[in-house]
Amino acid sequence: MLEVKNVSKSYRSNTVLTDVSFHLEQGECLGLIGESGSGKSTIAKLILALDRSDSGQIIVNNVDFSQLKGRELRKARRHVQVVFQDPSASLNPKLPVWKSVIEPLENYPEASPSFLKEVRNEKRKMAEILFEKAGLQSGLLDRYPHQLSGGQRQRVAIARGISLQPNLLIFDEPTSNLDVSIQAQILNLLKDLKSEINMSYLFISHDIATVQYISERIAVLKEGRLVDLFKTKDLFSADRHPYTKELIDAALE
Q1: Topology given in CATH for the domain delimited by 1-79+167-253
Q2: pLDDT tens across 191-234, in order?
Q3: Helix, strand, coil fractions of the chain, as percent rounded to 5
Q4: For burial by CB atoms within 10 Å, which of 14, 155, 200, 223 has the most?
Q5: φ, ψ dihedrals at 207, nearest 5°
């Protein structure tokens, strides 16, 4: 589903990524972990073609995103969606949240997600179905972002993220601003949605416990370099990179 091949990126004299390579299988959740400044969010921006790498390739569903421009890039982006850390930054404060949820469907009228086919021309009904899938009550449809809790806003962002039934959904620190009980609810929701809709996840976080819970495999970034890549069940293996062990020890303190 996703191949990142020998990707490097610098901003002026600051090298952010150096020769990073990994892949993501269809239906898999790959956790990408590292400290702040390790290059995690830069990778997300490059995959979304919000920025361009200096070298290397980013291939999504057999399409080389690093070569796409204009109309072709817009068409391909339909299949890759993202949920950011702060949902307030991606929700229009002047719109009731149900309208924000269906914005991608209005931008891509040719898209016909399997779970929305029967109501594809009924905007509010589509929002109701997406709310239900994200575990939100329909009574919240007409609320504005500031009228919702942090967990509810993140569920709205998730509802919008799945609206086009993307092949790949990127999560950039989606639970870091939430308290522990709400984090668990969101992670369980994401697990259920991945199975139900058959999406692939790239889950970016600095929290190794969160990544361990949701991911089948884990990739570890340190100062822009991929230093470890392994199945989650092998997290505590003696073969782990010293930096991975540092992250584990820090989480256990």
Answers
A1: Rossmann fold (3.40.50)
A2: 999 988 888 999 999 889 899 999 999 999 999 999 999 999 99
A3: 45, 25, 35
A4: 155
A5: -100, 110
